[in-house]
Specification:
This protein is mostly beta strands and 134 residues long. The chain folds into two domains: 3-75, Immunoglobulins (Immunoglobulin-like, Sandwich), CATH 2.60.40; 79-134, no CATH class. It is 0% helix and 30% strand. It is built from no helices and eight strands. Strand 5 (51-60) and strand 6 (66-75) form a beta hairpin. The chain is rod-shaped and about 95 Å long.
């Protein structure tokens, strides 16, 4: 999902510098954007970007005065769902054995060894061996 927030409007005690105030951002993560006119930060992190980021927002008065405000953004790791490989429709004669071997993957490499299969709505007389995935 997209993270969007607005930076509060700043002020300068030197009133003559107020019209020259500029909003800046440093250390933006890849893909993040900062609209300095609207003071809006926006970012849709990818799955690979989970982690902690420190982004610096600055207010520059154009006369040598700069205020810096670091903001920590934490992107949580989100578990993605596994995907079962497609299974085509099957046809079999009576009194014959039909074996279907299930396979699938998990896009999260760290979860590859955790994949398990469950069968639902098996017809009478059908069996499912979860260990052998058939």
């Amino acid at each position: 999902s997209t993270l969007t927030f607005e930076i509060p409007e700043g002020s300068d005690p030197d009133k003559e510098d107020h019209s020259r105030l500029k909003y800046l951002a440093e250390n933006l993560p890849q893909g993040a954007e900062f609209d300095s006119t609207a003071r809006v930060f926006s970012w849709t992190p990818t799955y690979a970007q989970s982690g902690m980021y420190i982004i610096d927002f600055l207010l520059d008065d154009g006369a040598g005065g700069i205020d810096r405000e670091p903001v920590t953004v934490t992107v949580n790791h989100v578990d993605r769902k596994p995907e079962i490989d497609p299974i085509s429709d099957k046809e079999i004669d009576e009194n014959q054995t039909l074996t279907i071997v299930l396979s699938g993957t998990d896009p999260d490499e760290e979860d590859q060894d955790k994949i398990s299969f469950v069968m639902e709505n098996l017809p009478d007389g059908a069996e499912f061996d979860a260990t052998n995935q058939k």
